[in-house]
Structures are given as C-alpha cells and as structure tokens.
C-alpha cells in the first residue's frame, strides 16, 4: 500500500460557536488546514473531501453538508462525501481518506470533521446523541450516553476498587493540559481539593450521572478540525514543503454488539481492543512503542478502560499509573495531551479528526510553545469511540524518521 | 429646598432589607470567591466593570450589561425601589455581579446575572446566591425571573424547572421588557437548593478582607486583548 502523510492541519476553538452555521465552522477549520499546508491558492489539487458529522440532519436541519463545504471553500469539482459513525465519525473519515489514497484512487484528500451541538438545549443535545443507541432495547428505556458512562463507571469501581477521587484525578490531569491548549473548550485547570475534597464540591462539581460528576464528563461543544492527506509517492507532494509530513502508520477499526447488555462482560470493550490490535499490526508496532495517546474520554472512566484495552496497562491497573503520574504530560505514557474530550470538548463529528490533529502537532514538535510538548514523541495513537463502544477506530501516526 | 422636595418625590419608598451574610466558595480551580453584598459607595467600581461589556454582542452581553448598568446607576441615584446587588470577588477582583429587587416583602423581581470570568460556573453560583438572599434571607415566597440569552434560559428556566406563568400575561409580566415571566417558588427552591447553592459561612475576617476593596477585572474573556485605558 502507498504511504500516506498528513501535510496540513486546522482547528477551530471548541466551545460555543452558535453565532456561526455548521458549514462556516467547518470552513474555518478547513481554511486553517489549507493555510497550514500552504495550499490555499492551490486548493483545487484536493481531489476528494470527506466530511465527518453526526447530527447536522437532526439538530441543525442541514443535509448535503459535504457538497456545501466544497462549495463554501471554492473547491469544486472535488469529490465529496459525508461520513457518519456516531462520535467516531471523525476517525472513520480519516480512515476513508487514508483508504482513498492508499487504494491509488486519489493523491490528495481533505478530511474535515465538525459539529454544532449548542444550538439546542442540553437535554435535546443529550437526546440527539442517544439516538445512536438501540431504539427499542436501549433508547426507549430512557438510556443516554451519560447514563451508560455512569453505569460503566460504577461496575468498574466495584470490580477494581476505583474511587471517585481517582476519577477527579483524571480531570485534574486533563484540565492541566487543556488549560494550555488554545483550542480547548474549558480552559481552566482544576484541583482535586476543589472538585472532590472541598465542602463546596457537591455543587461546583455536581453529579450528572452518578457516580460521574460534571468534571467526570466532557462538555457539549461546537467546533471543527481538518486534515490534509497526501500520498508520499505523489508528485503533488511538491506542494507540501511548509510542514514536516507525519505518516499515518496504522489504522484499525472494529464493531461490537449494538446493545451493551448483549456483551459477555460490559467492562470488556472488544471493539477497542480489536481496533488497536489491527492498527498495531498494520504499523508493525506494539503498545509499548506508542509515545503518547489521545483516548476518547467523553466520560473519564473511558480513558482508563481504553488505556487498558489497547495494552498500555493491565486490566484494573490504569488508575495506579494515573496516581503515579505515568499518564501526565511528563510521564512515561502521556494520555490526552490536548486536554482530551474532558477539557478540550467533544463536538462529536469533529473529535476523531481533532485527536489526529493533536497527534500531528505533537509529532511535529509544535506543542512546545504551548508548554505541553511530549518529549521525544515518535508514535502517537488516537482511539475514537463510537456508540457505547460498538464502533471504534484507532489511528497511529508516526514521525517519518521514527 | 424646592429641589430637595422634588428629589424626595422622585425617590421611591424603600423596604428595609436584611443584609446578605457574606460567604466563600471554593471554585473548581481552587480559587476562593467571596460572595458579598455591595455597598452604595462601591457603585463606581461596578459600573467601570460593566461598561466594557456594553459593546459585546455575543451571548447578549450588550443587553445585559446596558440594562445592569442602568439598574445599578438607578439604585445609586435612588431611582429603583428595594434593589440589592451581590458581587463575587476573587482576590478582590470582580468575577461576577447579580442584582435584583423586591416588589414587596413577599415577591422578588430578579434583574441580571453577569459573569465576567468564564468556565467556572460563577454565574450559576451567583444566581443561586441571589435566590438564597430572596427566599432564605429576605423571606420572599417567590421570585419572578426571565432570561435574555439562551445561556440564561438553559441555566434558570430549564435547570431549575421554573414555573411558567405566561398564562397570566400580560397582567403578570416581568419588568425587564414587560415580557411573560417564569417564577421560582419557595417550594421549588427547597427542592433544588442543596444541589445548586453552596458557600461557607462565616467567612474569616482575613478572607473577607480580600474583598474589601473591589477591583475591576484586568481582563475579559469576552473582549480579547482588552486593556483598561
Ligand atoms: C456536564 C453537562 C451536563 C454540563 O451541562 P451545562 O451545565 O449545561 O454546561 P454548559 O455547557 O452550559 O456550561 C456551563 C458552564 O459549565 C462549564 N462546563 C460545562 N461542562 C463542563 C464539564 N464537563 N466540565 C467542566 N466544566 C464544564 C462551562 O465551561 C460553563 O462555564 P461558565 O458558565 O462559567 O462559562 C454537559 O456538559 C453534558 O451533558 N456533558 C456530556 C455530553 C455528552 O454526553 N456527550 C456525548 C458523549 S458520547
């Protein structure tokens, strides 16, 4: 297969962007990616556009988003398709972009993920995301993603002795990173004393889906991120001299049962494990080779559970690593250096693209000026978690000299 | 003398309002916010804090700031009846302001909630303090509330599940724009208070002293690059 590199990256701030429409927001990120790649004037070299979005048709009453973005960017006649895979839409779009190039069909692809979730109330937003659950067996009973996050957390706590304080420590770590990320939604650091120990904690960090509190889950965000991909053997690589290209070395994805109750053990996330194994096999790497990772912590427990499934830590042992600072930015295995979904935010369709954006930024060494650079980063891994673990995509990016 | 008389007739009658006992809240980032009542002689620093936000369209800061400016000036000049103003201060710097007034001893009319420092849910804490003052301290049975921004609507109408009194409109309306009102009743407050309202009392004299002399914010997240002239 052809080697594919990421040659341009773009991002909007995550947060409340309700002054703009969905395609505007995607266009901001896409424009940033074109500038970063140095091809704004030459943008018509892009042959294919993949747009990741989950809820445009439901909450923004907008369809045909991919064609609309191409038109807004004056990039016709590029081919354009929308990719929807729930909260993993972003990484799925990266995967399809990779496949389009690796197959030899095209040389240059733009992948843009975006979501505008704040134009509706929190309840409507929660309901829209819950539409990915099984309609009769889950959704109809009032299940939501935060409810699943809460139940998963409770079982994990009972089985492995995890405490609410440990959950708070994940937030503290993620917010420390997110506070330094200019694109993050909640850019304030938090302390464990304030969000857990203080007598005011029950209100400033209230329960949302017990035992998960506000600082145990991602905010509802608007935002977009964008990547430009190019075949390394293409003559078009000559356009991309502005930045160090970062290679996509592994991509894997896997599915699991739609209903969580059909799994033998609700704590075992088969799709995460398989997606990671497939990505490792393709990259010829092992868990220990990964320098840092962006793991889908929509609910902080998922950072722990995913880090175990992908082989960073033994089952039930990730909290120990967290307490010992292993996953901090200066630890042996930094996790969620961008602030993660927890602090950076989670505009669902944008998230997977944003995770890969962070991998590229770290691997280029460009997080240094923000004071959150992982030292000697060679290989980064992103895990984008769709459904409640029923469709998961893992992406590994590497420095070309690694 | 004639002017004094005229002035006297311009001033509304005032109820004697009990003071709000100061409290302190540890915010998520570990900073401590003193919530206390503002004294009339502190109005200048409040107006200076609010004024730059009068030009910020996003999230309807312009409407909220302009109206709040007028309400607080009105309080200072004795043109509003039974108004009170609370402030949240971190190391003396104003992080948020709320104001309100009483129609009579039983009914409150909530005016505005202005959050300057964002990301720490300061507005939510100050709004709760305002409701605490109305119901628990001043003994109101209900408070009329409206929102001018979607943020406010989500925070108050939806989260507090306020009673929709629009069926009694226009006889019953809110003073802010004469619009149909929502209402927080004592019963609703008792139901949500434990989850919404916090703060430690009494505040030690040292901590209270940090908020003695209020300072205008040095930066506004709503106004990138802001420099006070
Ligand atoms: C946690 C949650 C209930 C909070 O809702 P909310 O109170 O309406 O939050 P808002 O977005 O209106 O923000 C209100 C304030 O809280 C802060 N905030 C919001 N979510 C936060 C979070 N998760 N952690 C920390 N602070 C948060 C905001 O910065 C904002 O601060 P400010 O008012 O001082 O500026 C909501 O973010 C949520 O439902 N999250 C889960 C989303 C989800 O399920 N996504 C899909 C997963 S697959």
Task: Provide a descriptive summary of the structure in words.
The complex is a heterodimer of chains A (402) and B (229). Chain A has a domain at 4-121 and 220-239: 3-Layer(aba) Sandwich (Peroxisomal Thiolase, Chain A, domain 1). Chain A has helices at residues 22-37, 56-59, 65-72, 89-102, 122-130, 145-160, 164-178, 192-197, 201-204, 270-283, 300-309, 318-323, 340-344, 348-364, and strands at 4-11, 48-52, 79-83, 108-115, 207-209, 212-213, 223-231, 246-255, 292-295, 379-386, 391-399. The model of chain A has no long low-confidence stretch (mean pLDDT 97). In chain A, strands 3-2-4-7-1-8-11-10-9 form a nine-stranded mixed beta sheet, sandwiched between helices. Chain A has 14 helices and eleven strands. In chain A, helix 1 (22-37) crosses helix 3 and helix 4 packs across helix 14. The two termini of chain A are 19 Å apart. Chain B contains seven helices and eight strands; from the N terminus they run αββααβββαβαββαα. Chain B has an eight-stranded mixed beta sheet, sandwiched between helices. In chain B, strand 3 (83-90) and strand 4 (93-104) form a beta hairpin. The longest helix of chain B is centred in the N-terminal third of the chain and has 16 residues, at 61-76. The mean pLDDT of chain B is 95. The A-B interface holds A 16, 18-19, 121-123, 186-191, 193-195, 198-206, 215 and B 25-30, 58-59, 119-121, 125, 128, 150, 154, 158, 194-200. The complex binds coenzyme A. Coenzyme A sits between chains A (87, 122, 126, 129, 145-146, 186, 208, 214-215, 217-220, 298, 346) and B (115, 118-123, 154).
């Amino acid at each position: 297969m052809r080697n594919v590199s990421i040659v341009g990256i773009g991002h909007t701030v995550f947060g409340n962007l309700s002054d703009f429409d969905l395609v505007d927001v995607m266009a901001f990120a896409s424009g940033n990616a074109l500038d970063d790649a140095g091809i704004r004037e030459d943008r018509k070299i892009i042959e294919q556009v993949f747009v990741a979005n989950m809820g445009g048709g439901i909450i923004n009453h907008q369809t045909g988003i991919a064609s609309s973005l191409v038109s807004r960017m004056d990039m016709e006649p590029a081919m354009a398709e929308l990719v929807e895979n729930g909260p993993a839409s972003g990484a799925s779009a990266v995967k399809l972009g990779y496949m389009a190039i690796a197959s030899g069909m095209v040389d240059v692809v733009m992948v843009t993920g975006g979501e505008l979730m704040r134009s509706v109330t929190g309840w409507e937003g929660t309901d829209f995301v819950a539409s990915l659950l099984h309609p009769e067996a889950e959704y109809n009973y009032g299940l939501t993603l935060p409810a699943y996050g809460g139940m998963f957390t409770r079982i994990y706590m009972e089985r492995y002795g995890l405490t609410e304080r440990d959950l708070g420590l994940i937030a503290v770590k993620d917010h420390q990173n997110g506070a330094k990320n200019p694109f993050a939604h909640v850019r304030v650091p938090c302390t464990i004393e304030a969000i857990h120990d203080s007598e005011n904690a029950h209100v400033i960090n209230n329960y949302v889906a017990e035992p998960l509190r506000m600082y145990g889950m991602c905010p509802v965000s608007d935002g977009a991120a964008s990547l430009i991909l190019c075949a390394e053997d293409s003559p078009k690589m000559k356009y991309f001299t502005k930045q160090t290209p970062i290679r996509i070395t592994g991509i894997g994805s896997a599915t699991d049962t739609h209903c969580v109750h059909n799994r033998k053990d609700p704590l075992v996330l088969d799709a995460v494990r398989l997606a990671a194994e497939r990505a490792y096999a393709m990259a010829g790497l092992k868990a220990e080779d990964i320098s840092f990772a962006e793991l889908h912590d929509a609910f902080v427990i998922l950072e722990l559970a995913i880090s175990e499934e992908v082989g960073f830590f033994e089952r039930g042992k990730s909290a120990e690593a967290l307490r010992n600072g292993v996953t901090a930015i200066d630890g042996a295995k930094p996790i969620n250096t961008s602030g993660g979904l927890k602090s950076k935010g989670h505009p669902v369709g944008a998230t997977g693209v944003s995770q890969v954006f962070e991998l590229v930024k770290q691997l280029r060494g460009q997080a240094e000026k923000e004071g959150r650079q992982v030292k000697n980063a060679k290989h980064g891994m992103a895990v984008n978690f769709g459904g409640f673990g029923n469709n998961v995509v893992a992406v590994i990016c590497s420095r070309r000299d690694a | 003398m004639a002017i004094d008389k005229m002035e006297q007739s311009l001033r509304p009658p005032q109820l004697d309002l009990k003071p709000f006992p100061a409290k302190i809240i540890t915010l998520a980032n570990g900073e401590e916010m003193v919530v206390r009542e503002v004294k009339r002689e502190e109005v200048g620093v409040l107006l200076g804090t609010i004024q730059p936000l009068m030009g910020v369209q996003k999230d309807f800061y312009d409407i909220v700031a302009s109206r709040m400016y007028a309400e607080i000036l009105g309080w200072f000049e004795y043109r509003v009846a039974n108004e009170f103003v609370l402030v949240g201060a971190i190391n003396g710097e104003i992080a948020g302001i709320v104001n309100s007034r009483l129609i009579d001893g039983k009914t409150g009319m909530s005016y505005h909630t202005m959050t300057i420092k964002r990301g720490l849910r300061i507005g939510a804490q100050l709004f709760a303090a305002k409701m605490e003052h109305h119901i628990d301290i001043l003994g109101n049975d209900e408070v009329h509330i409206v929102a001018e921004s979607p943020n406010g609507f989500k925070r108050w109408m939806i989260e507090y599940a306020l009673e929709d009194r629009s069926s009694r409109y226009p006889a019953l309306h809110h003073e802010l724009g004469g619009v149909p009102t929502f209402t927080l009743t004592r019963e609703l407050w008792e139901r949500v208070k434990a989850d919404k309202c916090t703060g430690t009392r009494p505040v030690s004299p040292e901590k209270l002293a940090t908020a003695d002399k209020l300072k205008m914010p040095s930066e506004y997240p709503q106004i990138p690059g802001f420099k006070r002239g």
